[in-house]
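Long-time lurker, first post. I've been practising inverse folding by hand and with some scripts of my own, and I keep getting stuck on stretches where the structure tokens seem ambiguous. Below is the full token string for one chain I'm working on. Before anyone asks, I'm not after the true native sequence, just a reasonable design that respects the backbone. If someone could post their per-position residues I'd love to compare against what I wrote down in my notebook.
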């Protein structure tokens, strides 16, 4: 074989080896995901009806499930009754004392004054007799005490009448108004809780999961239904540390979905500033030992709307 032939063979071998040794373009791996929202349990009550099934599309406001309402309904009625009682009490304070009570107080004042005059007259008659020692000093002392007590009772009756005639104090009315507002707020809160026992979809979406079944009693705050919402899924990927500096919100991206040849166009809508360890399904060669940054890629185009969640994706950044 001549020198020229050897050169041609070496060139051919080099052309075959170099493509295999070239570095792949920077990429991030992840999955397609939808935004998820949870519908929590407002109270710890038994599930009495489930109106949807997993995988069903629901509209905003559509009924999902219902909880038993007996206890909450009773609590709501009690709160409403308390609010009505406070309202009546406030109306009584604003109306002031009844005329019959004022007349009664005036009669009691007249009786107390009469008793005071009688006790004072008796003491006046007994006092000179005591001075001449015709009666015991103890009797004079008792008469003087009785006269003083009768005057005090008359003064108390006068004060009671004055209080009724002046009406309710403004501070009492303010207290009544505050008590009424508090009871009304409690009744409103109970009414809102009662309404929440019929759970509805807060947004249009797909029922992804119903963790509890008919008859279960979930704790307060437990997710009773999980919905997938949004017009299209997004790519949730882990960006390797070497290319993190070139990826920012708004960066263009090409998303390759498993099973599809053509890439989908997208833009980075979120990327975390703090790194995390790369999950097992995003490990590629030497990237296994690196930290990565969670990012979300919004997808463009009508094709993306038809894709299901959970598909593996590969994302390349740049124009």
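-- Answer (accepted) --
I ran through it position by position. Result:
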């Amino acid at each position: 074989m001549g020198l020229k032939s050897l050169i041609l063979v070496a060139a051919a071998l080099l052309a075959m080896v170099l493509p295999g040794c070239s570095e792949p373009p920077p990429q991030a791996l992840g999955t397609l995901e939808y935004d998820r929202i949870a519908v929590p349990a407002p109270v710890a009550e038994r599930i009495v009806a489930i109106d949807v099934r997993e995988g069903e599309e629901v509209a905003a406001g559509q009924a999902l499930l219902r909880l038993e309402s007996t206890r909450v309904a009773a609590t709501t009625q009690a709160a409403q009754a308390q609010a009505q009682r406070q309202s009546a009490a406030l109306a009584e304070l604003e109306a002031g004392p009844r005329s019959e009570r004022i007349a009664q107080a005036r009669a009691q004042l007249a009786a107390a004054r009469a008793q005071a005059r009688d006790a004072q007259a008796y003491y006046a008659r007994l006092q000179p007799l005591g001075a001449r020692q015709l009666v015991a000093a103890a009797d004079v002392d008792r008469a003087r005490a009785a006269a003083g007590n009768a005057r005090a009772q008359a003064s108390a009756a006068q004060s009671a009448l004055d209080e009724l005639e002046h009406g309710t104090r403004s501070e009492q009315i303010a207290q009544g108004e505050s008590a009424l507002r508090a009871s009304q707020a409690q009744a409103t809160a109970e009414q809102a809780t009662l309404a929440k026992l019929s759970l509805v979809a807060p947004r249009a979406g797909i029922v992804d999961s119903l963790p509890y079944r008919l008859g279960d009693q979930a704790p307060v705050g437990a997710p009773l239904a999980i919905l997938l919402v949004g017009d299209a899924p997004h790519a949730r990927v882990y960006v390797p540390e070497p290319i993190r500096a070139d990826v920012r919100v708004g960066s263009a991206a090409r998303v390759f979905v498993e099973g599809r040849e053509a890439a989908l166009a997208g833009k980075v809508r979120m990327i975390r500033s703090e790194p995390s360890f790369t999950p097992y399904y995003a490990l590629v060669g030497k990237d296994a030992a690196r930290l990565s940054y969670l990012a979300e890629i919004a997808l463009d185009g009508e094709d993306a709307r038809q894709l299901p969640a959970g598909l593996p994706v590969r994302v390349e950044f740049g124009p």
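A couple of notes from the structure itself: Residues 82-185 form one domain. The two ends are 48 Å apart (CA to CA). Happy to go over any region you disagree with.
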